[in-house]
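Notebook B, p. 112. Complex prediction, attempt 2.
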Amino acid sequence: MNAPEKPPFASLLAQACAPFPASRKVHVPGTLHPGVAVPMREIALSNGERVTVYDTSGPYTAPGFTADVRTGLPALRAPWLDARGDTEPYAGRAPQAVDDGDRRDTPDAERLQALRQQAAGLQRTPRRARAGQCVTQMHYARRGIVTPEMEFVALREMGRHEWMQAYGGDAEREARLRGDARGARIPELITPEWVRDEVAAGRAVIPANINHPELEPMAIGRNFRVKANANIGNSAVSSGIDEEVEKLVWSTRWGADTVMDLSTGRHIHTTRDWILRNSPVPIGTVPIYQALEKVGGVAEDLSWPIFRDTLIEQAEQGVDYFTIHAGLRLPFIPLTARRRTGIVSRGGSILAKWCITHHRENFLYTHFAEICEILRAYDVSFSLGDGLRPGSLSDANDEAQFAELRTLGELTQMAWQHDVQTMIEGPGHVPMHLIQANMDEQLKHCHGAPFYTLGPLTIDIAPGYDHIASAVGAAMIGWMGTAMLCYVTPKEHLGLPDREDVKQGLIAYKIAAHAADVAKGHPGARAHDDAMSQARFEFRWEDQFNLGLDPDTARSFHDETLPKDAAKQAHFCSMCGPKFCSMKISQDVRQFSAEQEAAAEEGMAAKSAEFKAAGGALYIPIRPEA
Amino acid sequence: MNAPEKPPFASLLAQACAPFPASRKVHVPGTLHPGVAVPMREIALSNGERVTVYDTSGPYTAPGFTADVRTGLPALRAPWLDARGDTEPYAGRAPQAVDDGDRRDTPDAERLQALRQQAAGLQRTPRRARAGQCVTQMHYARRGIVTPEMEFVALREMGRHEWMQAYGGDAEREARLRGDARGARIPELITPEWVRDEVAAGRAVIPANINHPELEPMAIGRNFRVKANANIGNSAVSSGIDEEVEKLVWSTRWGADTVMDLSTGRHIHTTRDWILRNSPVPIGTVPIYQALEKVGGVAEDLSWPIFRDTLIEQAEQGVDYFTIHAGLRLPFIPLTARRRTGIVSRGGSILAKWCITHHRENFLYTHFAEICEILRAYDVSFSLGDGLRPGSLSDANDEAQFAELRTLGELTQMAWQHDVQTMIEGPGHVPMHLIQANMDEQLKHCHGAPFYTLGPLTIDIAPGYDHIASAVGAAMIGWMGTAMLCYVTPKEHLGLPDREDVKQGLIAYKIAAHAADVAKGHPGARAHDDAMSQARFEFRWEDQFNLGLDPDTARSFHDETLPKDAAKQAHFCSMCGPKFCSMKISQDVRQFSAEQEAAAEEGMAAKSAEFKAAGGALYIPIRPEA
């Protein structure tokens, strides 16, 4: 089958921005800070009820909003930043040809020029902390300050206790439904003060660079809803800028809580401008990728000055978190020599190459304090990278992996001394029986800093389906305490994800994250499932589609078998057909039980006779039988 | 997008029968019994190695085999049955019009006649146990007899201990890789005698009706590889016989260990003839579906004589296991009245309707001993149905569900008194934190009989993706001790699965089952993953595709980004591009570490200088950079 010709960018973007069916954007206003209005998606059901769900899609799905990717999103946070008065605009680092990979004469200089021209409307004057100031959310939190970002997050997490109260009369049931938080401490009512305390303790990160004012704040932490990250990014082999912006918007539509721009090809700086200015979610990067571009791809030519320059470049653009592989120490490298698949982290392998060539300690480790100084001036969060994560089941949980993890724990404490927000990256490829140990070791050595894992993949033989093989591990480790799950797409190990892969990967990871929230008993998470189950029981088909993670697909699957509109009101579905519908029968059972209870004293034999006499039909035929 | 026109049956069947790439069918001969030759798939790797994998696809993928669905498969087991001499052919039950749903004049009498004509070549004379004989595998096992079926199963499970020995020199690594069997007792060497003992103890079932001689025997048990079942079957609304046979062959191609025929429409008897005669895997049914057809869909008109007649009809055709909802007792029905989604099992709701109408105990429960007598005469296995399984997270693990489960445990003991093989069905919809309790209760009350669960689904909000939402639960409960996982397709809750859905459902469930085998440490399971990982590390792309669960999809995903043949030998892939390839770098690390070790006394400084001088390239360019 030939792939259909690709639709133009505008049409793809329109698809990504289309409102969800029966949904409208609502804003929950804050009470502490002006301008705090948290967007959520409200789904209207056919029975008049409404279900409100977490919404990562930003202004794109708001009514009347027209996306213009050349001017970017409104700067929601700008007034908050101004009000704090601890930052200053400044000229910023001068742009250099090398930022976009122009190390040598390039055959596409013209194209690059055009792209930059188009991105002209996206330029912002960078800000940084005033001399002597620290502008991180952690810094404020430790001083007892509740920022607008914290209030925003508190409302966004929707710690609604009404739902639990609905089961209040049935203690046994409530206990079953409450979940098993496995050591997480999730309050039923999520307050701005509680968010502040979590950030102050380092148990939660609010990635929010002061140069990314377009951001709708969110939090990553064990006691918060489990989040999902989507990776996008062009590479040397394929992909362009338009495509990456569209993938970004598309990702947030399908629930990406953060997006990592892993671009590695040319135009890396300009691509990032486009992505950041158009992103309502935090953007993460791996700065070593760009640093390596700057030295022409020769790892041993990397140096601290080049890396430092890249950090500042990206911090000024507004990147919200950096993956920094500072835990990959020289003495750990030989521990990987007998592995089946060696070092599979790109960043990790670049640094390993540098270390063994120079036989020197990793410069990210030796310069870690200086990195902290840079990050605190912009409130960039650390995502301490696991450069030695296992690349196969065979290498899971080995000494190389855990030695690095313990080092990340040490670095976390150093970052916190600088008030820099920090999370810890985790694997990778881990069979189910070794997953818990990953969480245990992280909790033991990393002082409560949020864990952010890639999957993990539970088997290695499913290329083309690694989103599923890894969603299993992701759901489990999410329940165990991981705060954010980095998605894996069906193309993992095979090629670059296209937009369909991005969607498939995200939906698999929203499933994993939601399964974890439900199992942990995050208040409010289960209300969504209960609304769906109720719609199923009552044959409200449209509500079932609209409540689903992907309404379009649910509707189209239903219509393949029973396309008629009448079937959407039918009291049966295509699985069983009209005669066998079990949902219908159990409604009869319920009616019977209720009658039975009411008429207990009339005697069961009499009741049975009455029911028989009434001859209650098994189903309501909506059309003559074929 | 319009659905493309459906290709003709012959072409679809040819697709289902095509050999897998780089694979050949091999047969491992038995030593105890003539005619035992266990088919496996051997995958030839480009480095000369071979990997042998479990093969459910039957003769269809054998070289030179031409499928003729009108004559059926060869009767592999016939000589074994003859040799036992404890069965006899007999006239069998006379066919009745009602068997195919011809209760009234049907508009498609002509079509039915044509189908029967075509199925004429599929008629076999039924066998049953001679008077006073019991012909179940459990009966033989308890008498110490190792049947050909048991020998077949032992070879098929591939308890190879060579693989573990490969790690023998590294105790720490071996311990990590060995898995955590969570109470299962899996020997490293699987012998026919061990299989016999498992069957004798009731811990394993070999579903093998004496009237299904085409069957390639397999076992279901906690100490065996975790199996996957695929449901097929037409319904009143859609689907035809051809389609069902093709779905059967297609299912076995993608790894279905057993297939349940859940047909509910017309032609139900004739469909079953086609399926059984063409099936190399055990076939299960839910006889109450056909019994209900015979009484025109009116549940209260069901009776023991009609049900009994249906059991004999299906046992004579060769059905290998029956789902029997005998544990759904009258007193449990009111326990479901306050559920969110009541009774969702089709069989369960039919019987509940019968019970409440007549206000009498379930006739399957009161006639259970007579059912046992029938099943033992044909070696049909019980799959004791969970008619009260939860239909939503909200109803998971409630008293209705567990009351029925305890009853299934009592019935298991009664079945075993008749030497009837028995397994227990389980849920359904269960959040992660309540899954372990399902396994615990089953182990506690069901005396070691194999558990056979549907999923479970871990969330309710993923219509269109329930294969993923349930693969999470399936992998977990498989690791905990469930013996067989009933698949869920993407169409669950929405419509009838087509062939693509069947494939997607099966692959999700092969992932879950394999993840469970790996976590439990089933000997040999991990060898497959290790071969894949090694191929990844060595950039053997063709081997990666061929070792995957779905080679076609893996290859096509790779080719989307890098279609050139040269890229299949490339020492990089499209994810990172040539400059960043981490696999390549870690090969350098390995080489470096090896050199370092060898030359330890020469001093590290000297070595570092030497490596720098050599200037080892980071990658091998295969074409000029773009």
